[in-house]
């Protein structure tokens, strides 16, 4: 935590505000939800394909 109360991380020896390095929390949550939905759909499609191949 910086003296001004903001979160900082060290990058190449300089203090860089965390919000310049990491996206805002709401974006992280949205990106995670989108990723989970995409992966879930891919797993569902692969599972259905495997079931079809077993029944063929």
UniProtKB/TrEMBL annotation:
<protein>
    <submittedName>
        <fullName>Uncharacterized protein</fullName>
    </submittedName>
</protein>
